[in-house]
Design goal:
230 residues, alpha/beta, Rossmann fold, 6-stranded parallel sheet
């Protein structure tokens, strides 16, 4: 039962969307009773709780990894429970070394798991954005400009690395899958050579990146389901 666990959710802006989605679900379903607490010190929160707080700085993924690890080291790791770190779509841009970013995350997680065997870490795929139409992307490329599709390929690379590393051994909250799946179960995507690159379904966003009420509720439902099974 999720209501019997202590969870720490380290995040930034899209994470706030998901937390709002959890609150939306609570308001509509009184059976869901979570003690939602905003705190960077989850070890000080008594009893079961869903503790959430911003970690690090947007566009600086290493700062999020370091901040997340510091929060765990303050006491939650020794207490046990569940922890998850969610990067934001802005943490990957045209200049990002995705393999290095993932290696830093993987190294930090391995260290935390070694120190705190009673702590369950849920891995989260990087959220997505919508991308420009193919004709507009082609025009940008002719002018030597980068495209949102180029960055989408990098986010896809990170998510492939995460799934390959942890799926089947650790719990994974596949936020990218949630965000790209339409109501009819088809996926929002574009083709990049032989690869299918998934993108944020337009109906889940009003600005191309953040989740609107529909998107945030769907993401929140999936997150709660993942946590309940962890």
């Amino acid at each position: 039962m999720l209501a019997t666990k202590k969870v720490f959710f380290g995040h930034q802006s899209v994470g706030n969307n998901i937390v709002d989605g959890i609150k939306d679900i609570e308001r509509s379903d009184p059976r869901l009773k979570l003690n939602i607490v905003k705190s960077a010190d989850p070890q000080t929160v008594s009893g079961p709780a869903f503790v959430e707080h911003e970690v690090g700085k947007n566009t600086e993924p290493k700062s999020k990894v370091d901040d997340f690890a510091a929060v765990i080291d303050k006491g939650l790791g020794a207490q046990g429970g569940v922890a998850l770190l969610k990067f934001c779509y802005v943490d990957i841009d045209a200049s990002t070394d995705v393999d290095k970013m993932f290696a830093e995350y993987r190294s930090a997680v391995a260290g935390l798991k070694a120190k705190y065997p009673g702590l369950a870490i849920v891995h989260v795929t990087v959220p997505l954005t919508t991308v420009e139409p193919s004709i507009k992307a082609w025009a940008k490329q002719l002018l030597g400009k980068g495209t949102q599709r180029d960055i989408g390929v990098k986010r896809h690379r990170y998510n492939v690395l995460l799934r390959r590393t942890y799926s089947g051994s650790d719990p994974v909250f596949d936020l990218a899958e949630v965000e790209s799946t339409h109501h009819d179960s088809s996926r929002s995507s574009f083709q990049n050579g032989n690869e299918v690159i998934y993108t944020l379904a337009p109906e889940y966003t009003d600005d191309g990146g953040h989740l609107n009420p529909v998107g945030r509720r769907i993401a929140a439902e999936r997150l709660l389901n993942t946590l309940s099974q962890t």
